[in-house]
Design goal:
The complex is a heterodimer of chains A (about 280) and B (about 260). Chain A has about 280 residues and is an all-alpha fold. Chain A is about 80% helix and about 0% strand. Chain B has a single domain, classed as MetI-like fold (Orthogonal Bundle), CATH 1.10.3720.
């Protein structure tokens, strides 16, 4: 009996220690460094300050923050609008079709997003597949200059992150009890009313977690901006990377990442709220 | 939605998802070096990859990191799922929450926070740092995969084993492990893919002496489209597709 208790204690202690060292400690360090001053000899000076956070609101940096948030927000909305119908179709498809359709979403989900970004270049280039198609159909007479524009970065974000929206949506739609919808329709609700009053609130957790999985990476994926946007467009991720590797301003880079973590915290709050409210709806039903 | 509308809509989204990959795959066999026009079928670019010594070295690094980190993540993740499922102890919810937050955290934040940790303890960046960082990335995925497998089987088996005098370790070794083995192997495969495909965390946690494939691709890609990059990406894609299909198969069995 003693050895069995030992096993249990060992495993729990091991996992807790591992999490403390590799999950908790690095984030604490990030927070501490973001409150310090940049040093001239050492990377940081032990002077506590909030100046790094204040600097996030200075014109040049604030522009990046706002542009990046706007871009990530639009990518999130477009992924949601494009992903929801597909997730719904997959969840309601017959078993065999569903498996196939699901795997076809999982493959890009697990594929290196740098490779997928790169694959997009051959499509978006001036003499790429998209322009060949547009010229061939006569939709445009001039090839579109998409590469190295904000639009290309936006397309890239939507393209790489769409599967991250579809999978959580699919999971929450699959869990939705179809009988609730039938009942609503029997009681005289229109299709739209049934969707608005039942489907939407009950799949809210999927909507929120999918949105998180699109919005947060969309702020950070600096290589999408590098490959498709050239030097012109900058995401928050590019800024953080440059602070760490080029400017060697660790406190500033840390402050920007803590800002991202704070956004994640807010979204997690929304997520918990959505779980609770959708749970309550289920109880009522 | 009508049936036709559903089919058309799905086809449109899947085309969007797969067209660029298909184009890349086709051009990796194109004999023409510069233009997008088709100049005949060739394996030349794949051959060049094979003969590129520094590229092969990066490939060996990547595969080593992927295999070692997947194995560690598989062990830690399975044990974490086991204690979360089996035991009630103070801090259980905190572990749950931490794993969830780790899964949701943007890669860039994980990458730089670990970089700060390694800088703080002055650990030289290289195999060990990138490997531990990838373990970090993968554990939440293994833990959730294995945990959902636990929920699938009856607690009575474990109760019976306990009644018959099995200790905690014996329960884990002889009852739990065989039952969750398919999920754990699936988790291993997914971790392997995650590690092999990661750009962001590798970017911050490896040093110049230990280059891995995705970072190599990153520096190649910034120079524009090259047929050998196409070939390399197709090889990576093939590995990912295989791992996903095998792990799906493992998770589907016995359901």
């Amino acid at each position: 009996m003693r050895s069995s208790n030992l096993f249990r204690r060992l495993v729990i202690t091991g996992i807790v220690c591992w999490l403390a060292v590799f999950a908790l400690l690095p984030n604490l360090l990030l927070l501490v460094v973001s409150l310090l001053e940049r040093g001239t000899v050492n990377p940081v000076e032990p002077v506590v300050t909030l100046a790094n956070y204040g600097r996030l609101f200075e014109t040049a940096i604030f522009r990046i923050v706002v542009d990046s948030l706007a871009m990530a927000g639009m990518a999130m909305v477009l992924c949601l609008l494009a992903g929801y119908p597909l997730a719904y179709i997959i969840a309601r498809a017959p078993a065999r079709t569903r498996q196939l359709m699901l795997i076809l979403v999982m493959i890009p989900f697990w594929t290196n997003s740098l490779i997928r970004t790169y694959a997009l270049v051959a499509v978006l280039k001036a003499n790429g597949v998209l322009n060949m198609f547009l010229l061939w159909t006569g939709l445009t007479s001039q090839p579109l200059q998409l590469m190295y524009t904000q639009t290309a970065v936006f397309i890239g974000l939507v393209y790489t992150l769409l599967p991250f929206m579809i999978l959580p949506l699919y999971a929450s739609i699959l869990r939705l009890d179809a009988r609730l919808l039938e009942a609503a329709r029997d009681l005289g609700a229109s299709r739209f009313q049934a969707f608005r009053r039942i489907t939407l609130p009950l799949t809210l957790p999927g909507i929120v977690s999918g949105s998180m999985l699109v919005f947060l990476p969309a702020l950070g994926m600096f290589y999408v901006s590098d490959v498709l946007g050239g030097a012109r467009s900058i995401l928050l991720g590019n800024y953080i990377r440059d602070q760490f590797l080029t400017s060697r301003n660790l406190p500033m880079g840390s402050a920007a990442s803590i800002a991202m973590t704070a956004i994640m915290g807010l979204m997690l709050l929304v997520y918990y709220y959505s779980i609770r409210s959708s749970g309550r709806q289920e109880d009522v039903a | 939605m009508s049936r036709l509308a559903k089919i058309l809509y799905s086809a449109a989204v899947y085309t969007f998802l797969y067209l660029p990959l298909a184009v890349m795959a086709v051009y990796s066999f194109n004999a023409s070096k510069f233009s997008l026009s088709w100049k005949g079928f060739t394996f030349e670019w794949y051959g060049r990859l094979w003969n590129n010594v520094s590229l092969m070295e990066a490939a060996v690094h990547s595969l080593t990191v992927a295999a070692v980190s997947a194995t560690l993540a598989c062990i830690i993740g399975t044990l974490a799922a086991f204690i979360l499922f089996q035991y009630v102890f103070p801090g259980r919810k905190v572990i749950f929450g931490t794993l969830f937050v780790m899964m949701m955290s943007p890669d860039i934040v994980i990458g730089i926070s670990l970089l700060l940790l390694f800088l703080a303890v002055q650990f030289p960046l290289g195999f060990w740092t990138i490997m531990m960082a990838h373990v970090m990335l993968s554990v939440p995925f293994v833990a959730t995969t294995v945990y959902s497998r636990f929920k699938g089987f009856e607690g009575e088996v474990i109760e019976a084993a306990r009644d018959l005098g099995a200790g905690e370790y014996q329960v884990f070794r002889h009852i739990v492990l065989p039952l969750v083995a398919p999920a754990a192997i699936a988790g291993w495969l997914l971790s392997f893919t995650l590690s092999l495909d990661d750009v962001m965390i590798s970017f911050f946690t490896t040093g110049p002496t230990y280059e891995v494939l995705p970072l190599r691709i990153y520096s190649m890609v910034r120079l524009g489209i090259k047929p050998d990059v196409n070939a390399l990406c197709v090889v990576m894609l093939a590995i990912t597709v295989t791992a996903v299909l095998v792990s799906r198969h493992l998770l589907k069995e016995k359901k």
